[in-house]
Every structure is written in C-alpha cells, then in structure tokens.
Write a structure and sequence with these properties.
Layout lengths: L2 E6 L6 H11 L4 E7 L10 H11 L6 E6 L4 H8 L3 E6 L2 H17 L4 E6 L9 H9 L10 H11 L5
Parallel strand pairs: 1-2, 1-4, 2-3, 4-5
Helix pairs in contact: 2-6
Length: about 160
Amino acid sequence: MTIGLFAGSFDPLTNGHVDIIKRASCLFDMLYVGIFYNKDKKGLFSIEQRQRMLTEALADLENVQIITAHDVLAVTVAKQVGATHLVRGLRGSEDIDLEARLDFYNHELAPELETVYLMTMLEWKYVSSTHVRELIYFKTDISKYVPESVVKEVEETFGNKDN
C-alpha cells in the first residue's frame, strides 16, 4: 500500500494546494494532508478553521484524510502514519532550491521515505497563501484563488462580504 503525506500550513488553503492534493490522491492508496504549524509564519486562521476549510474543500476525495501536527517534523508524522512518500508542490525555481535543502534533511532523518514533487499548474503558479492573506486584509475578492470553503470562512471570520 502506498501512502503519501502532503504537509503544509494551509493558511489559507489555495486552489494551487487543492490541485496538488487532487493530483497526488491519484498516485497513492491513501494521502494524508497534514496541517502543520509553521514557526516562521504568523497564522491568520486557527488550526480548527484550517481543518474545517480543508475538510469541506476535499470532501469528494475518498482516499484523503486530514491530520494536524504541532511541534513535530513532517518525517516523524510520516513514520507515525506509515507514509511511504512525502508529497511536495513546486511553483518555480525558488521552491526547487528550498525543497532540495529540505529533502537533504528529510532523507537523512528518514531514508526510507521518498519525496514526490508535483509542479503547480500554470494557472496557480503565482498564487500563495501569503498573498491571499494580504488580499483578505485589504478586503479584496479572493474567490479566484481559493475554494468556496475559504471564502465562506473569511466572510464568517472577518465579515468580508465582498469576497
């Protein structure tokens, strides 16, 4: 059985994330989507909100399970869930350099795990959670960049009815 783990902060979930998750779900018997705390990012949404947004957006994917993690490495969680592969999305050359550095450590810590890289579809190449958070701050329409579950959460949390 092949099991993948796609880890991220998903703050918020974007259509680029959804694209990678859908494509990765076709490659594995089971795909865990791990909502991880990122110490380098200031979160806009709580873990519970992120989990709710992902659950709704990915409801049609039967072999995808959402999990959460805090203060633990992705390779540790991968071992805990029996993952055979880590899944990573790439938008461009900057991501490739960062992912190569991460892969070095991941492979040192868990040589039995293979990493699979999926290139983001061109239409989502420039979409990032960071930029979506900025659009949310300025009450700008984000509906082109995120699933409906995120638009709904933004409206409920921040009163951004313009989204």
